[in-house]
Automatic annotation (TrEMBL):
It comes from the Eukaryota. This is Isochorismatase-like domain-containing protein. GO terms for molecular function: nicotinamidase activity. Belongs to the isochorismatase family. It comes from Arachis hypogaea. InterPro entries: Isochorismatase-like_dom, Isochorismatase-like_sf, NIC1. Residues 30-198 form the Isochorismatase-like domain. Gene3D superfamilies: Isochorismatase-like. One of its GO terms (biological process) is pyridine nucleotide salvage.
Length: 245
């Protein structure tokens, strides 16, 4: 039934993805959204997968592969890590990714990034990394990062496709359109590097306060809405004209 619904959705709101060339004539930046244990590593908290998940595993593999290419080229990377204080809830979700726990750390496959000179780590306490980058004095760490590195094209990937990733893309597109992120010209969501979680309807019915969240359905919706906001959605990335990612 779920597969039939997903196919119906894809027929009603088809998502055309593209192949994007990241030219070396411009500055390309990469943003990782919440690729952390609390969302991606089996058994690592209230919002972590309960068992191995193909979409999440594929997202981690693609992220690691892309990150290594960006690091080889010394291109700027920003990684958002969901990190909450225990006395501040984030409705409608249960406590998760508490500051100081391993839930709020990068997954093992990406933990090495913490020591890379081209990587900026930003811990955030809300869905949206753009808002989570605002400091007490009103400055914005993400905005400053874009301007300092003179980023023209921004590639975004991570979890969850339809929540934190989408929220960040929406805010970034609005800020770009208002001229707050010059010289940023383009935001590219790399679909193979995105994933979301899966809560079937029958599980939601049996768990008080839980909303159904069919994975493939919501993943498609998240990508579609990112494109609807003006982001490019790519299922293939290339550096220059020949180097396929």
């Amino acid at each position: 039934m779920v597969s039939q619904t997903v196919e119906l959705l894809k027929n009603e709101i088809p998502l055309e993805q593209e192949s994007v060339v990241l030219t070396e004539a411009t500055v390309n930046g990469l943003v990782l959204v919440d690729i952390i244990n609390g969302f991606c590593t089996v058994g690592s908290g209230n919002l972590a997968p309960r068992e191995a998940n193909r979409q999440i595993s594929g997202m981690i593999n693609e992220s690691e592969r892309l990150v290594r290419l960006f690091c080889e080229k010394k291109l700027p990377i920003m990684a958002f890590l969901d990190s909450h204080h225990p006395n501040k809830s984030e409705d409608p979700y249960p406590p998760h990714c508490i500051v100081g726990t391993d839930e709020s750390n990068l997954v093992p496959a990406l933990r090495w990034l913490e020591n890379e000179s081209n990587v900026t780590i930003r811990r955030k306490d809300c869905f949206d990394g753009y808002l989570g980058s605002i400091e007490e004095d009103g400055s914005n760490v993400f905005v400053d990062w874009v301007k300092k590195n003179k980023i023209n094209t921004l590639v975004v990937l991570g979890v969850c496709t339809d929540i934190c990733m989408l929220d960040f893309v929406c805010s970034t597109m609005s800020a770009k359109n208002r001229g707050f992120l010059e010289p940023l010209e383009s935001v590219v969501v790399y679909s193979r590097g995105c994933a979301t979680f899966d809560i079937p309807l029958e599980v939601a019915h049996d768990t008080k306060g839980t909303l159904a969240h069919p994975q493939e359905f919501m993943h498609h919706v998240g990508l579609y809405m990112a494109k609807e906001r003006g982001a490019r959605v790519a299922n293939q990335l290339l550096f220059g004209v020949a180097e396929k990612i």
